[in-house]
Design a protein that fits this description.
By secondary structure, the chain is α+β, with helices and mostly antiparallel strands. It has 3 domains: 58 residues, RNA-binding S4 domain (Structural Genomics Hypothetical 15.5 Kd Protein In mrcA-pckA Intergenic Region, Chain A); 91 residues, 2-Layer Sandwich (Pseudouridine synthase); 80 residues, Pseudouridine synthase, CATH 3.30.2350.10. Helices cover 20% and strands 26% of the residues. It is built from 7 helices and 17 strands. The C terminus is likely disordered.
Length: 275
């Protein structure tokens, strides 16, 4: 196999974007075969790489087909590989890979359910999360009680939060048979921590349920129950990569949909509306 640029290998391992990895190399944080790496270095699969003193396994740095899955995350799960408190983690339930590892594209907090995209390509994950590309994020939100039109206007105009101004790009009321609650579909193009909840709560509104239903062009697949995964087609993966300016690497698709881990009934998802 031919050598590759060091920053590309580090990005593929999920450590950050290529630009961020270039900065890490320039800062002297990367070693190759016990030598401080320099920008422009190329590496072979047999080379031993360390970042901040920690070795990278060949399983993480080896080239792999670019794959993406959609996972229907239940509430109560962490988007984490391990939890010291022993809570359930998303990565415990994902399809096993012969090569590479799954990298989450963005996060959902423990109390938020819905669509979580994961990929084997760290550079793709980094770009899809980057504010530069302004990929949409749609959520179904259940609000306890009535919402005044003036509240909707303020949330669309913009609210000053502790980490800067934010606003919803769109807010659409959804049909609901729950007398004490109302469902909305809201759209953002940034991924600040708990931003949907914080925007509503800034207006004294209580969010009783939150579910992500779309990320970029990918919607939560119809019929995908909590705890299940669905492999994106090669065409969908190429489209995602093209949106963020990546070369169209070889992709792969699984023959079927993942089954939920464990037994028992699954709760029905919140109302969905195409937008």
């Amino acid at each position: 196999m031919s050598s590759e640029k060091l920053q590309k290998v580090l990005a593929r391992a999920g450590l950050g974007s290529r630009r961020a990895m270039e900065a890490a190399i320039e800062a002297g944080r990367v070693e190759v075969n016990q030598r401080t790496a320099r920008l422009g270095d190329r590496v072979e699969p047999s080379d031993r790489i360390r970042v901040d003193g920690r070795p990278l396994s060949q399983r993480r740095t080896a080239p792999a087909q670019r794959r993406v899955i959609a996972y229907h995350k239940p509430t109560g799960e962490l988007v984490s590989r391990h939890d010291p408190e022993g809570r359930r983690c998303v990565f415990d339930r994902l399809p096993r890979l012969e090569q590479g590892r799954w990298i989450a594209i963005g996060r959902l907090d423990i109390n938020t359910s819905g669509l979580l995209l994961l990929t084997t390509d760290g550079e793709l994950a980094s770009r899809l999360m980057h504010p530069r590309y302004r990929l949409l994020r749609d959520y179904a939100v259940r609000i306890f009680g009535a919402v005044e039109p003036s509240t909707i206007d303020r949330l669309m105009s913009g609210i000053e939060l502790e980490d800067g101004r934010a606003a919803f790009e769109s807010i659409q009321a959804l049909e609901s048979r729950e007398a004490a609650n109302q469902w909305f579909r809201v759209r953002l193009r940034e991924g600040r921590n708990r931003l949907v909840r914080r925007l509503w709560e800034s207006q004294g509104v209580r969010v009783s349920r939150l579910m992500r239903v779309q990320y970029g062009p990918i919607e939560l697949p119809a019929g995908l129950r909590e705890g299940q995964t669905d492999w994106l087609s090669a065409g969908q993966v190429r489209h995602l990569a093209g949106l963020v300016g990546l070369e169209r690497d070889e992709t792969a698709r699984s023959p079927g949909r993942g089954r939920p881990a464990g037994g028992g009934p699954r709760r029905r998802p919140a109302p969905r509306h195409r937008g």
